[in-house]
């Protein structure tokens, strides 16, 4: 019973950090999600997440191993390129933004899978678990 009282009073630093982090994540995700839905860009999160795979593979190849900074930097660059590609396609053609996002998601993810296959067949010992990233 005392553990429940301690949990509810937020006296533990770990509990405080988790509760505050969850509240911040919920507030920002809700605001950004509503904004994305109203702009008819509900698929943009999936698009950027799938577009990060080639960047993870490129970061791995350049760094020569699973260096977190290189993987994150590669993922950010390719996600940024995917966002630019979605904007370019939807602005310069008659394709709707949802279709543009689906095309970019498919192309970037396919490039990532091909790159991941290449890395896995290279025999690099440090590639184990790279697909989990």
Commentary on this structure:
- The chain is mainly alpha-helical and 133 residues long.
- The protein has helices at residues 2-8, 13-38, 44-63, 68-92, 97-121.
- The protein starts with a helix and ends in a 12-residue tail after the last helix.
Summary keywords:
133 residues; flat
Order of helices and strands: HHHHH
Q: Globular, elongated, flat, extended or rod-shaped: what is the shape?
A: flat
Instruction: Name the beta content range.
Output: under 5%
Structural category:
mainly alpha
The helical percent reads over 70%
The DSSP helix count reads 5
Radius of gyration: 20 Å
Low-confidence stretches: none
Biggest β-sheet, characterized? none
Rounded to the nearest angstrom, the distance between the terminal CA atoms is 40 Å
Quick recap:
By secondary structure, the chain is an all-alpha fold. It contains five helices and no strands.
Fold topology:
Layout: H1 2-8, H2 13-38, H3 44-63, H4 68-92, H5 97-121
């Amino acid at each position: 019973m005392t553990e429940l009282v301690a949990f509810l009073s937020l006296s533990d630093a770990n509990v405080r950090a988790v509760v505050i982090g969850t509240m911040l994540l919920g507030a920002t995700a809700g605001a950004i999600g509503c904004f994305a839905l109203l702009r008819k860009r509900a698929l943009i999160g999936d698009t950027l997440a799938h577009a990060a795979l080639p960047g993870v593979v490129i970061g791995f190849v350049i760094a020569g191993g699973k260096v977190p900074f290189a993987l994150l930097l590669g993922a950010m660059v390719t996600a940024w390129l995917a966002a630019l590609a979605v904007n370019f396609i939807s602005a310069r053609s008659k394709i709707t933004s949802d279709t543009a996002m689906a095309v970019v998601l498919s192309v970037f993810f396919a490039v990532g899978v091909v790159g991941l296959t290449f890395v896995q067949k290279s025999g690099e010992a440090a590639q184990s678990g790279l697909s989990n990233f």
